[in-house]
Amino acid sequence: MTAETPRPGSRRLLIAGGGLPSLALALAVKQAHGPALAVTVIDPSGADSARHRGRAYALAAGGRRMLDRLGVWDRVSGTAEPITAMVISDSRLADPVRPTFLTFGQDGEDDRDEGEPFAHMIEAEPLAETLLRACREAGVALVTSGVVRATPEGAAIHAELTTGERLRGDLLVAADGARSRLREAARIGWVGGSYPQVGIVATIGHARPHGGRAFEHFLPAGPFAILPLRDGGVLGHRSSIVWTERADAVDALLAGEPDEVLAEIERRFTLDLGPLSLEHGPSRHPLAVGLARRFYAERLALLGDAAHVVHPIAGQGLNLGLADAAALAEAVTGALRLGLDPGGPDILRDYERARRFDSFAMAAVTDGLNRLFSNDALPLRLARDLGLGIVDRLPGLKRFFIGEAAAARGSRPRLMRGEAL
Ligand SMILES: Cc1cc2nc3c(=O)[nH]c(=O)nc-3n(C[C@H](O)[C@H](O)[C@H](O)COP(=O)(O)OP(=O)(O)OC[C@H]3O[C@@H](n4cnc5c(N)ncnc54)[C@H](O)[C@@H]3O)c2cc1C
């Protein structure tokens, strides 16, 4: 599809990058404003949801409320699995048992609605497919191209595409991922770095049910998470694993035949779920932490991983991106309803104010947890094992794991509370 030409007098939002948070933003603002706002999502991989195959995310309650409000949740919930409890253990790889230090999920110490699971595991491909369909139905233009240059000029910003096309917008959202070229071109600094770790993602089949419980084993090389998926696959039940390993060990671990790779997974899995099978993957993902020094420049707003990257130890990157989308949709909508310029500096400042602390806090806490747990030094092991007893009684840290850390529910963006824009 090519980009529609905005009607005279209407505004246009350009979004570079068609990841899940971008699609949620596009849908939210298009639903709120209809023909008064042209919305164009530009991504070189286009409207191809297959690139998300094999990825699954822990979607926190706020993100689910947002998808519900956008009319997407009902269409995709049949593929999601509620997480009823989370169990955390800390041990060495060779330890025969993995003692539990921290459990949560049923103690109702946060502000979820009664009976609301703290998260759902959702597969990225059906979620992307549903969001893309809803975007098309709402009238969002999806353009298969990349943005090579963005030039603010007075009351507009011009995006130059790889196809040579030049699009004019009131605001350009840079949602082009962790290595955002648009962020760099706008000279927005980045604080952070890479971890000497790689995230390995795979879908594992198992013969016995997981009961909706998620497990995270803290092993010296990094956390090994087992996250429940909807039943299916050759063995009847499935889980997604996110296995953090030392970068220099990954090649050797994954070089073998599928049976050998599965044997490595089984050594870490240690749950009694019967025989295991490798249903999808493994795929490798470099791990990093980072935060943009500013979340906006002239007529440009950063969103998702382009603004912040966090370690997947608490499964919160996408949730942060969805919160960005909810906050930016609210800022843009507020401006348009008052007849203000949606790309103006006050609006972008409001957006940054709404999102910066939350993003910083998540980056800092996940980085701290990863450093604390991903090693085998005895004094640290003792300290953290003693610490976890305390942590178990600390609602603050648990809230980070369940994506509800951002402050009281009342101060979250409206869509994350399940309210209309
Ligand atoms: C191992 C692992 C496990 C994770 N697990 C979880 C989890 O359980 N829960 C959770 O909340 N988060 C999780 N995350 C984080 C999550 O994957 C990311 O935060 C999220 O996918 C970021 O989405 P995004 O759209 O910002 O970026 P991306 O998904 O990287 O999308 C960027 C898009 O921009 C496009 N693009 C690039 N350049 C251009 C350009 N010049 N012009 C136009 N488009 C461009 C790309 O094609 C791409 O589609 C995990 C991450 C990892 C690595």
How would you characterize the overall build of this protein?
With 421 residues, the protein is an alpha+beta fold. The protein has a single domain (11-192, 289-417), classed as FAD/NAD(P)-binding domain, CATH 3.50.50. It has helices spanning 20-33, 61-69, 73-76, 124-138, 181-185, 247-254, 258-269, 317-337, 345-373, 378-391, 395-401; strands at residues 11-16, 37-43, 56-60, 81-83, 85-90, 100-104, 119-123, 141-144, 147-153, 156-161, 166-169, 171-174, 190-206, 213-219, 222-229, 237-246, 276-292, 296-297, 300-302, 308-309. The strands form four sheets. Strands 6-5-14-15-16-13-17-20 form an eight-stranded mixed beta sheet. Helix 1 packs parallel to helix 4 (124-138), helix 1 packs parallel to helix 8 (317-337) and helix 8 runs antiparallel to helix 9. The longest helix is centred in the last third of the chain and has 29 residues, at 345-373. The chain is globular and about 70 Å long. It binds flavin-adenine dinucleotide. Flavin-adenine dinucleotide (FAD) binds at residues 16-22, 42-45, 57-58, 146-147, 175-177, 181, 199, 201, 242, 285, 304-305, 312, 315-319, 321.
